Amino acid sequence: MRELKPWLSLILQRRRRLLLGALLMFLTLVSGLGLLALSGWFITATAVTGLLLAAGLSAALNIYVPGGGIRLFAITRTVTRYLERVYNHDTVLRLLSDTRGRLFLGLAHQAPCAGVRLRGADWLTRLTSDLDALDTLYLRLVAPTGLAVVASALVVLLAWLWLSPALALATGLALACALLLATTLLYRRTRHLSAKRSEQFSQLRGQVIEHLEGQAELRAAGLAPELARQLCDSAKHFCHLQARVDVATGWHQAISGWLVNLAALAALWFGLELFGGGQITGPVAVILPLSILGLLEAYTLLPDAFGRLGATEASARRLNKDCGLAKPAMAVGAQDLVTAPGAAPLNASSIDLNNITIRHAAGPALLQSFDLAVRKGEWLGILGASGCGKSSLADALAGVSRPAAGEIRRAADVTVAYLTQQTVLFDDTVRSNLVPDGQAMADERLWHVLELVGLEQRIARIPGQLDGWLGAYGTQLSGGESRRLALARVLLRDSDLVILDEPFTGVDAQSQARICQQLRPWLQGRAVVALGHGAMALPPTDRTVRLG
Question: Domain 2-322 sits in which CATH superfamily?
């Protein structure tokens, strides 16, 4: 359960809302129990009174007080049920907002390259099903369990005070067994199955997405039938795991319900014994059994939640591991990139790479025993063939990945703007692609940078201009236009160090020359590191380093 601690602590930050929501749920359940018990008493008392009158005996029954109580409980149950649903679902949406914020904050404080080992389908699982499994912790797990415990304790306490300690003990034992069976025992039995099913679901989703995306290549290679068979086998295995979890949940729910009914039967038996001894009246004898039956409303919610608890733990474990939520958030890269103790202080916008080694996983080193210093205001060009480690070096300079060995020293307050080799545009407006964080920025500045990269006329032709929609991955723009828009996004960042990895990919020579003429004034005083295959692919630099 330790995987859930960060999320439970996040949920408990809204204690007042949770307590009020739990109170509404409790009032709904108590109203239901009161309605069922009082209605049973009233029906029984009416029947007994009718039998006495039929036998010629004197009998009387006040129908107004219990009738008013029944109406009160019915109205209260309806109103509190409505309020509980509206309020608690609003609470769940707020909790979803909290968990999403916590998740994205964790992602923001993670090095981006920490997640490159995950496929897009894996991230889709993290951001959808894994997150959904956590945002309902309160409504499906915490609140129903607490409600069942409190309501059961209340029924047992009333049986102890009003009827018989022996009856209360028998009832409490049966209800405790039912509660244990529907929660802890079911969780222990399905924990690993449910976690395995959750992992299988993530893998199956990835396989389906990859199969759909690669249909053309698979058919061309003649592999589509074989992979389709493997996909079907994976789906059958997933369905088998799901069936095992569902069967276990069904059995535990059935036995738990049987124990609750057994408790009601025991209460009725003891009640009839007390009635036979003249200690209580016949109508009173049915109140406790009917109240216990009313507890089924709370008990039936538990098996499904605890049968899925293993999957919820697995989701929390994946999020904690892949999104850096297992430990408190801290400033990006501060621990690894600050000046080493005892080292000479660095000037602003400077960075030193001392004897670093860069490699991918267990592969051969791309760079080994490599030293580099970037001074304040310097324009540095890094050249090299494909595969020599340019992009990996850019990641290390930006602080989004760590070298396998060596030391990177950079002033703690240095900010970085990084144009990666891959052009990424969002299915959003031009403005949102230029300023993804939503920071307020004057239109004049946006048009200025668009003019710098030669896109002002192209964007002016888009309906809505700055507020015009670019489409998925910027489909309204060509490859070169998309690259220039991504470059404009980087230029808008007020950063100390600018890293440009293949900045002019897909950009024609005339546009490149025009952009290069205006880059120096725009980036005046900043350190710039540009990486490319050849000198013609870079803006003019103060010095050049060649790799390989």
Answer: ABC transporter type 1, transmembrane domain (1.20.1560.10)
